[in-house]
Amino acid sequence: MKRLPYATGFFHFGSEPAIELAAKEAKVAARLAKAGYVNGLLSRAFGDDAIGLAPPICITKDEVDLLISRLRATIDALGDLQG
Prior knowledge:
The chain has helices at residues 28-38, 61-78; strands at residues 7-13, 16-21, 43-46, 50-53. By secondary structure, it is of the alpha+beta class. It has one domain (7-78): Aspartate Aminotransferase, domain 1. A 4-stranded antiparallel beta sheet has the order 1-2-4-3, covered by helices on one side. The chain is globular. 22% of the residues are buried.
């Protein structure tokens, strides 16, 4: 959670990891998923305030770090999402 301070929780939707977001506005997850695609991040919105990620089943630590970096860059590009 320290690496993702805007996250209020983590959960799984089936085998897909998801992050619950502390957001000031509604439908931020859909905006985040769309913007993430432009940054090479495969994800989808779960409701208004959660984003599901789609990493490969075989993923290295470096690839996880890249995923988190792209997620952070996407959120930074959208502005302050913390509630």
